[in-house]
Amino acid sequence: MTRGLIHHVELYVSDLKQSVEFWGWFLEDLGYYVYQKWDAGRSYKLGDSYIVFVQTDEEFLDVPYHRRRVGLNHLAFHAESRAHVDEVTSKLKKKNVTILYTDAHPYAGGSDYYAVFFEDPDRIKVELVAP
């Protein structure tokens, strides 16, 4: 049954090429595949849900995203295991991605909460959490 499950999430991004490079490997690692492609966007699908990235029009790029403003704070994804969180963390470091809360990593969410928190190119917070 799909009632109540998220159908899709659509994010407007400041630089589509940069966002696709950032999100592509991560989402594919989680099992997503490229679902749709067009000049101003890309979507990735897993099961019945998908995530869409759309290039923001130039006229709306004057105010950058900030997760503490009204709107989206972060996206959180299930990891396969703690080892999976560690593998992705290693990949993030090799890609020079900003990892958040490094002083408490991987327990930034609490003593029994194993996760990595990081930022995408627009500084949207992303979380990968182990079961």
Question: How would you describe what is shown here?
Answer:
The protein is globular. The two termini are 23 Å apart. Strand 7 and strand 8 form a beta hairpin. Helices cover 21% and strands 32% of the residues. The model has no long low-confidence stretch (mean pLDDT 95). The longest helix is centred in the first third of the chain and has 14 residues, at 16-29. Strands 1-4-3-2 form a four-stranded mixed sheet, with helices on one face. A four-stranded mixed sheet has the order 5-8-7-6, with helices on one face. With 131 residues, it is α/β, with parallel strands linked by helices. The chain has two helices and eight strands, in the order βαββββαβββ.
**H-E order:** EHEEEEHEEE
Can you summarize the main beta sheet? 4 strands, mixed
Taking Cα atoms only, what radius of gyration do you get, to the nearest Å? Answer: 15 Å
Mean pLDDT: 95
Bin the helical content: 10-25%
Silhouette: globular
Low-pLDDT regions: none
Which class of secondary structure composition applies to the elements?
alpha/beta
Number of helices in the DSSP assignment: 2
Q: What is the number of E strands? A: 8
The proportion of residues in beta strands is 25-35%
Determine the N-to-C terminus distance.
23 Å
Strand order of the largest sheet: 1-4-3-2
